Amino acid sequence: MNPQGVGVGLRTEHFSHITSQWPAMDWFEAISENFMDTGGRPLRILEQVRARYLLALHGVGLSIGSADPLDQPYLERLKKLVDRIEPFIVSDHLCWSSVDGKNLHDLLPLPYTEEAADYVAARVRQVQDFLGRPILLENVSTYVTYKHSAMPEWEFITAVAKRSGCGILLDLNNIYVNAVNHRFDPFDYLKRVPAGLVGQFHLAGHTDMGDFLFDTHGSPVIDPVWKLYEEAVSRYGQVPTLIEWDADIPEFSRLAEEAEKARQILNFSTGVRPLWKSESYPQGSDPAPRESRDQVWVDSSAPLGMTERANLIEIQRQFKSYIEPGDSEKTNLSDLLNPQGGSDPEERIQVYSNGYIARIHESLCESYEAVRHYAGKEAFMDLAEKYAARFPSENYNLSKAGLFFSNFLESLPEVVQNQPFLPDLARLEWGIAQAFHAFDQPRDKASFSALTGADPALLGMRFQPSVRVLRAWWPVLDLWRGRKEDRPRSSVEKAATTVLIFRKGTEVFCEMLDQAQGELLESLLSGAALGQACEKLLLSHEEELPVDQWFAQWVASGIIQRIFLVK
Fold this sequence. Notes:
Number of strands: 17
């Protein structure tokens, strides 16, 4: 394992290949948010890979440049993952993603000003102090530029790094994309970023849209970017290099070919020193000296500058108004953005607004496969656009964007009239998704034996966090199992259904329950003692119920985490 070598992104499509073949690779890079909020299979895979390889964690949700306060729950989850995995690099992007509590799920550009550099640097210091280690910040691809900017991009990222003590993740594809989009020489960019600040390289492909280049990570690295990489290696030395490929992901062997090409270039160079190292900024140390300017250093322990934040929040609110559907308070973009390549600002900012809809749609497709099957692809796309306008995303994790989708479907007259089963089907799919990611707890076996002989009526049960009971008016489990049929069913008859959802190991199970068992489980899940739950059940069911048999089934399936006496 060579931390100065070449790695590839750890993606779901390659999990099986990696964990069965354990291919020759220097290291892997994982998207932080894909593993921060899951206790299921993704985290299990990450730990298996970490046992054999070095790992880097790369985030997309830190939103370090946002005018909003730093997201403390986000930082706590990130630190927990960092402490658990012990990556050799932790990185994110020099950008913003959210404002006023609304997340746009994109890497949005900042104005390149002294005030913004000070503001971001102070926030970086806070993040590094909290994590107890430095981070790298990546230069992002951009499609617009601000009239506020008073320095070039390379000077801005250098200023943030010097003032905060963080390193730079130099994405060479992004440099090339921006050079074409904004008409500068990419090699000049490299000349302006000092050696010793660069801690990682990214290499990826992009798409030529005619009027501009679009950063898609869905194709091989092109020759001009390879030339830029050769120059970067000659200037900065054997910096850890990643091959990014996030769309139209090929077989792992194709990624390995790209990695080998990078490795040959990297190994050929004698490089320059010093290389950036994570231990160069231990917790509590002072940052690297900033360039001499007539401005006051903003200490990360002090309140952030109100002037800098006030300027940023106004800029970001204006930007957001053109991206988030349903936001009617749009301002004149010509006062905010420069024309780009002959296009007016309103035209170019569509790259971001279209991207927001596309990401919400992608997230809903992943969570609601069956709903999409029965609604139809075109109708589902229309639903996604309407949903994005009515329920702006408020969570950094894109997979949580569909939280209110079943409620949204229930509010649509056309759904209620034509496909009234869709809201219940959506609830089932959301329950399955939440069970997949739940952080289940080790079973407390001692609690079972310790309470042997206790009055059963006084027993309470704590179930695994993945356990859910869904009661529906429609045959949702049958519909869900038919989600891969060639043609959706033309008609669906009502049929009251109760479904138990739970995870065992890394696999999610759905089982049909009779109504009484479902009611009993719901009472116990709400915290009722067994005796109290049974008494409630007898009010609506006169027949004798096999509670002992049900309890045995629950124990056998492992859905009960512990048993305790309810006082």
